[in-house]
Design brief:
Two copies of one chain form a homodimer. With about 110 residues, chain A is an all-alpha fold. Chain A has one domain (about 5-110): Orthogonal Bundle (434 Repressor (Amino-terminal Domain)). Chain A is about 70% helix and about 0% strand. The first copy, chain A, has seven helices and no strands. The first copy, chain A, has helices at about 5-15, 20-25, 30-40, 50-60, 60-65, 75-90, 90-110. In chain A, helix 1 (about 5-15) packs across helix 3 (about 30-40). Chain A is elongated. Chain A starts with a helix and ends with a helix. Chains A and B meet through helix 4, helix 5, helix 6 and helix 7 of A and helix 4, helix 5, helix 6 and helix 7 of B. The structure holds a DNA duplex (30 and 30 nucleotides).
Chain lengths: ~110, ~110
DNA sequence: TTATTACGTTCAGAACTCTGAACTTTAAGT
DNA sequence: ACTTAAAGTTCAGAGTTCTGAACGTAATAA
């Protein structure tokens, strides 16, 4: 089957989160058959709305999902991605990161 | 005519860059009639590919164009404080924190 | 074996995107 | 006024997205 870059990314992220096709479909107001198509059929051209919800639930940016090349994320996009990731962590981890960043901030920030 | 949030953002950014419909269409492999529809007709549901190119040429993220709400909805006051702090740091520090958090995520996510 | 359950796969077709070409408007020049 | 050009607007229809429902497969249990 034609394996696209987008499809491979979605499947990898979905499996890492242990979501079934149906689970991810529910989270993103999609059908499981469509999620399956995105992962397995070429060439998908999903709507921005779909890919935006999918990116959100998988904890990445739209840019990351769509860009064929590896991207060097700078500026706002990187910040958005970072924050999305942070939000999805559990409270204990969040607290650890915050106190860690507080220390870093003292020394380094200008 | 129905004025959507997405349409308004695209027009504002396009006019700020002094692009005509045709110019933006050329830059994004679209037709000018379609760019016009995005700006003026409701409800647009453009493909991820289109909106990605448009965001790129207008110098914003896909998330900024699509999210109806304020960019980030904060669940928790501590998160909000943390993110404000993070945003004010310099790029090098931000990058360090991000890669640090990426590592943390590997262990912890599930 | 025969349920049952959970997950993945296939496909017809309604609904929608997006284009090309024609048309209208606005503005500047003579 | 008339011409020309540049920008915006409209629309039919080819082609695509996306869903719902049916089907396939594998695992577990009685």
């Amino acid at each position: 089957m034609a394996e696209t870059s987008l499809g491979a990314k979605i499947r990898k992220l979905r499996e890492k989160k242990q979501y079934t096709l149906e689970k991810l479909a529910d989270l993103t107001s999609s059908s499981k058959s469509y999620i399956w198509e995105l992962e397995n059929k070429a060439p998908p051209r999903p709507s921005a709305e779909k890919i935006s919800k999918i990116a959100e639930k998988l904890g990445v940016t739209v840019e990351y999902l769509l860009d064929d090349q590896a991207i060097i994320t700078v500026g706002d996009a990187a910040d958005a991605r970072f924050y999305r990731k942070y939000q999805q962590m559990n409270d204990k981890t969040k607290a650890k990161i915050r106190s860690f960043v507080d220390l870093w901030d003292e020394d380094d920030d200008g």
